[in-house]
Every structure is written in structure tokens, then in C-alpha cells.
Amino acid sequence: MSSLDGVKSRFVNVDGIRTHYLEAGDGPVVVLLHSGEFGAAAEISWEFNIGPLSQHFRVIAPDWLGFGYTDKIFDFSSGNAAGAFARRLEHMRRFLEVISIDEADFVGNSMSAGLLLEMTTREKPLLPVRRQVIISGGGAATVNDARRAVLEYDCTPEAMKRILQAIFVEEALIDNEDYIKRRVEMSMVPGAWQCSAAARFRMPGEDGTSAAPANRLASAPLENIRVPTLLIAGEKDRLRPLEDMQDFHRRIPDSKLIVLPNTGHCSNIERPDEVNSAVIGFFSEPAPAE
């Protein structure tokens, strides 16, 4: 199933933070930014994408601060989850500086897609984004059974299966015991569960939704995005409604939208062939003029 043969696993020191990333291929740089559910990491999100994409590009897939094999640090300084997102973005900016990436095309899923969208509404985005592919990013974080399954994870295989039921449609993934075991193991890398859980901590009486990047996008000026943008949506996404992605398509100038039928929240895992083809086609187009 996996396409990680030949992919290099590397560590680099970023301002004292041991940072893990996967790398493969040569050519124009493509940075893959993973999702934010419990147990998320570069190899979990992108194992079916790195190999095919590396035949065309130099692919960099880092573990966000607090995820995977990157150091487990969570920022409480702002008093809510917004501080963690700001810290993660600054760490990612420095990571790319340290490995000498000053321009790249980006692909983000879920949490990362929301962060990319919000960031590229700014006049000077923090990351050096040339073009972006947004996979199931944005939209209001509606509380439903699927979202509760993602939030209420207790490190058991049963709870992980409920997460998979929330993010996938494909039964072959949801019912795969070996796959569930791998995801549980990644969620239990020392400090990983704590960092993911910390993003959900709320003081008594605090509104827990406003800090999420997806909810901040409700009022973000998406019309200001000038970065070429491809949106990929799952027709049956239970966490990011298709209607929101369609609205983003209308609001982002000259954006493109692909809707994958019978697909959930993580089409990069569930429908990798279609996603890889779309990404290769989009990033193989002439780069935007300066």
C-alpha cells in the first residue's frame, strides 16, 4: 500500500527544536503539510503521495511542531489555540529557512489547508507559497458526531476506528486492523497525544471554536488571495462540508475546484491516484510571473 520506499527520513535542528521531515525527488520544491487529527504525521498523511510526486518534484513533508517525530512543544502563551497555530507557523517558516527553501508549491490537508488559506489572504504570507493545493480545508467546524469522534480520542483502537469513520468513506481503510494499529502507534509517540489534546483545552466558559483556523476563515478576506489555488473536496466529507469548498472557490480569484465522488475528508489518503494526478497537473503548469 505505502509508497515510502526510497523516501529519506531526516532530522534538522530548528532553533533548538529537533524537527523531522521526509524528502524525495529532485526539481521544483513541493511542501506537503499534514492534517491535525490525533496521530497525524507526514508519513500518515502522505505515504501514498510522496513517491508519485517525487517523480516530478523535490518533495518535502515535515512533521508539524508537536506531531510525528518533531519535538513535542505546545504554546499556551496567548491563552488559546491561536497561540499554538502561530507558533507552529513560525516554526515552519524557520524550518524552511534552515533547509534553504525560499519558494515552493504547497499542499495542505485539513488543518494545514485552513492555515494555508488564512495565511495567503495576507499581503505578505509567512510561508513562501508560490501555488497551493487545498484539500478539504476551511469551513465552519460544525459539531457533529464525526467531529466528536475526532475530538474524543482515548488511544484505543476502537476510538481510532471512529476517527477513521469520520474522515473516510472507504471501508477498506476503516476496517484495516494493521492500518488502525499504525495510527494508534503514531498517536502514542511520546508527547503526541498531549500536544493534540492541548489544542482542545478550554478554560471554563471559553468558546472553543473561534481560535480554529477553519472558523476564522468565515470572516477572512479570501478575495485577497493572489496565489494560484486548486481546491480538492470530498463529496461526502463529514468534517468540511462541500458547500464551504464551493463557496471558497467562488471567493478566491481564478481558483479551481475538483470534487471527488464518494470521498471523505482526506482524499490524499483515500483517493491518492486522483489527488496525485491533480497536483502534478496543477504544479506542472507555468509558474506565475513575478
Entry keywords:
8 strands, alpha/beta, globular, Rossmann fold, eight-stranded mixed sheet, 13 helices, 290 residues
Describe this structure in words.
The protein has one domain: Alpha/Beta hydrolase fold, catalytic domain (Rossmann fold). It has 13 helices and eight strands. It has helices spanning 42-46, 50-54, 81-98, 111-119, 145-151, 157-167, 171-174, 177-187, 192-198, 213-216, 242-251, 267-270, 272-283; strands spanning 8-14, 17-24, 29-33, 58-62, 104-109, 129-135, 229-234, 256-260.
Secondary structure elements and their pairing?
Elements: E1 8-14, E2 17-24, E3 29-33, H1 42-46, H2 50-54, E4 58-62, H3 81-98, E5 104-109, H4 111-119, E6 129-135, H5 145-151, H6 157-167, H7 171-174, H8 177-187, H9 192-198, H10 213-216, E7 229-234, H11 242-251, E8 256-260, H12 267-270, H13 272-283
Parallel strand pairs: 3-4, 3-5, 5-6, 6-7, 7-8
Antiparallel strand pairs: 1-2, 2-4
Helix pairs in contact: 5-6, 6-8
CATH topology: Rossmann fold
| Low-pLDDT ranges | none
Spatial sequence of strands, sheet with the most strands: 1-2-4-3-5-6-7-8
What is the arithmetic mean of pLDDT? 90
SSE string, helices as H and strands as E? EEEHHEHEHEHHHHHHEHEHH
Using only C-alpha atoms, the radius of gyration works out to 17 Å
Helix content: 25-40%
Total DSSP E strands:
8
- Classified by CATH, the class is Alpha Beta
Give me the CATH architecture, please.
Answer: 3-Layer(aba) Sandwich
Assign the CATH superfamily: Alpha/Beta hydrolase fold, catalytic domain
Structural class: alpha/beta
What distance separates the N and C termini? 40 Å
Q: Strand fraction band?
A: 15-25%
Q: Could you say which overall geometry the principal axes of the C-alpha atoms support?
A: globular
Number of helical runs? 13
Report the biggest beta sheet as strand number plus sense, adding barrel if it closes.
Answer: 8 strands, mixed
Overall tally of domains: 1
